[in-house]
Design brief:
With about 325 residues, this protein is of the alpha+beta class. It has 8 helices and 19 strands. The strands form 4 sheets. Strands 1, 2, 3, 5, 9, 10, 13, 14, 17, 18 and 19 form an 11-stranded mixed sheet that branches. A 4-stranded antiparallel sheet has the order 12-11-15-16. It is elongated, with a radius of gyration of 23 Å.
Length: about 325
């Protein structure tokens, strides 16, 4: 991928490149269910700005990390592509509101609704003294170290499990991400340089030592089949509330985060031309002030070399032992 003043080439760093993406507020991407043998995969989804370290793991038997639950439960601000942002609503709260708004006397099958309402009732016993964990619920530890009940979520794999797996044999792969906007490059506190796209170039190519899709699934308190039935049958809601205000495209229950896109030790490679080259070179060789997106690169993570004796290729790599959350996929409700 070539930029007018800057070219991003293929390398092993899904993190930095995706962050590059991030700054753009750019494209979508979807990673296939299984890694393809094709050396280049085009992806679509919502890019995280900024990218985040993925270090979720069970804290104690019967508990989940609060960060994982909060991330999973917060509804996206938008169901379309581009940059990912959290909205102000929670999936559990919005789902509970809908169930409690339904006019029970005119809903069939009534027992299905009654059972669904039972599952969203908070446990009666304090989590510290509860002898068992009710179906659909789990425990988390808040910022003060207190145990709290929270609606349960599950993920397909924990971060430490994945790292252990890939360090025994990774499968590097290049990812191609469509972009529609210029890329910004910031050096120190200066105004970011805008690097327009070169004619005919409308994607970035990046790679990582490994990447994966991590599925996020609500616990037993959530009944997707019931939601689908409600959407199709359009039951009466109490107080004259319009169903579309809850389940429509702009309603509370529009979509949820269904997958994380994660990368391990990503790398981005850039080729600079003209005046931009001098600015990048100063940051790369003399300071830690080079920022692409929201990621700073220190000198230990940078290298530079001449290409054709004219232009300079900069390879920016992350040697973090923790995976990086690059983007998410969402599913319509």
């Amino acid at each position: 991928m070539t930029l007018l003043n800057h070219t991003v080439r293929k390398s092993p760093l899904l993190y930095l490149m995706f962050i590059l993406l991030l700054v753009l507020t750019m494209a979508f991407f979807t990673i296939p269910e299984n890694q393809s043998s094709d050396p280049v995969v085009t992806i679509q989804g919502q890019v995280l700005i900024p990218s985040k370290t993925w270090s979720w793991k069970p804290t104690v038997t019967g508990t989940l990390p609060l960060s994982m639950v909060n991330f999973s439960d917060t509804l996206p601000a938008s169901c379309s592509g581009g940059a990912f942002a959290f909205g102000t609503e929670r999936l559990f709260n919005s789902y509970s509101l809908l169930l409690n708004l339904i006019d029970e006397e005119h809903f069939e099958p009534k027992q299905v609704l009654i059972h669904a309402r039972e599952l969203i009732k908070p446990p009666s016993q304090p989590p510290a003294s509860a002898s068992f964990t009710p179906l659909g619920w789990t425990k988390t530890t808040d910022g003060s170290g207190m145990l709290r009940w929270t609606p349960a979520y599950s993920i397909s794999q924990w971060s430490d499990e994945w790292v252990d797996q890939i360090t025994k044999g990774s499968n590097p792969q290049t990812i191609r991400i469509p972009i529609q906007h210029p890329i910004s490059l910031k050096i120190g506190h200066a105004t970011p340089l805008e690097l327009p796209l070169h004619t005919g170039s409308n994607y970035l190519e990046i790679s990582a030592q490994a990447w994966n899709r991590i599925k996020i699934t609500p616990g037993a308190w959530f009944n997707s089949s019931l939601l689908k039935f409600i959407k199709e049958s359009r039951p009466l809601l109490q107080g004259g509330v319009n169903l579309d205000s809850v389940m429509g495209a702009n309603g509370l229950l529009h979509c949820r985060v269904s997958e994380l896109i994660v990368a391990y030790q990503p790398t981005v490679e850039l080729t600079a031309f003209g005046s931009v080259e001098a600015a990048i070179d100063r940051a790369v060789t003399t300071s830690n002030a080079l920022t692409i997106g929201n990621i700073k690169f220190n000198r230990a993570e940078k290298s530079a070399e001449k290409s054709d004796g004219i232009n300079t290729i900069y390879s920016l790599s992350s040697d973090s032992k923790l995976p990086i959350m690059i983007a998410v996929n969402v599913v319509q409700l």
